[in-house]
Design a protein that fits this description.
Keywords: Membrane, Transmembrane, Transmembrane helix
Largest sheet: none
CATH class: Mainly Alpha
Number of strands: 0
Mean pLDDT: 91
Protein name: Alkaline phytoceramidase
Structural class: mainly alpha
CATH superfamily: Rhodopsin 7-helix transmembrane proteins
Length: 263
């Protein structure tokens, strides 16, 4: 009995820690000076028009998201998976598919108005993935119930940025929280709730995080890489690296929830 109480207490402490850190992050970001969208963000290194497509490689390099999203949706629909988990993964994979459309639309003629359609699908991916990690490692019901709340928070962060941008005092703080805080919270969840029986696909989780970091580095060095490589820019490579990260989301789903023949 004492052991059971100890385990419950320890688990509750871990959950409290996650909630506490999240509250600190939300409150803390409110005290950070507002962060406007720099117009230089839209000035990508590779602006070549090929086959009548403006900024061609930045547009077509999003094809990977479309392929991954379709593969994920097909996998989720074609296999017997818990209904709640299936819905969560379908939201994730649909977000990845929509990222191809939104990012391609934005890169065709980059500006703040089109950037909204680039960011909306991405926050769906960020928030759905976080909800899935909570469901897989902490509690299925908690992750499932948090999904609509997290999606709402993500979408509102983009709407808030657009509203403040149109009002002349652009504020990216909450969008940045939605984008980057899960990359801190997710590894922490994996560490705190590490349990051998739950860690099928843990390697894929590492690949997802690693490739996302690679994508952000490639984005940061867009100009440098374009001038060094000539054929392709850092931003186009970022799309490819990010698509690889999302592919590992599909392989994670398959490893955890699709039994191989004979099992």
């Amino acid at each position: 009995m004492r052991m059971n109480l100890s385990l419950v207490s320890n688990r509750n402490t871990k959950i409290f820690l996650l909630i506490f850190l999240t509250v600190i992050a939300i409150v803390g970001i409110a005290f950070v000076p507002r962060i406007p969208q720099q117009q230089s963000f839209h000035h990508f290194a590779d602006q070549r028009n090929l086959y009548a497509i403006p900024g061609c490689l930045n547009v077509v390099s999003n094809a990977g998201f479309m392929l991954v999203g379709l593969a994920g949706i097909i996998s989720a629909l074609a296999n017997h998976v818990n209904a709640r988990l299936r819905l969560m993964y379908l939201v994730l994979f649909t977000g990845i598919l929509l990222t191809a459309c939104g990012s391609g639309y934005y890169h065709w003629a980059p500006d703040n108005n089109r950037l909204v359609y680039d960011r909306l699908p991405m926050v769906i991916v960020f928030m759905a993935f976080l909800a899935i990690v909570i469901a897989e490692w902490i509690n299925l019901t908690a992750g499932y119930r948090l999904l609509p709340l997290l999606l709402t928070a993500g979408i509102l962060s983009v709407i808030w940025w657009q509203h403040t941008e149109n009002a002349g005092n652009g504020d990216l703080r909450f969008y940045m929280l939605v984008q980057f805080y899960p990359m801190i919270l997710i590894p922490l969840i994996l560490l705190l709730f590490y349990k051998q029986s739950r860690n099928v696909g843990l390697l894929q989780m590492g690949y997802i995080i690693a490739w996302y970091i690679v994508a952000k580095i490639l984005e940061r060095y867009d100009d440098l890489l374009f001038h060094k490589i000539k054929l392709i820019s850092g931003h186009s490579l970022k799309h490819i690296a990010a698509a690889v990260a999302t592919w590992y989301m599909v392989t994670f789903f398959r490893i955890r929830h699709i039994k191989s023949p004979g099992n």
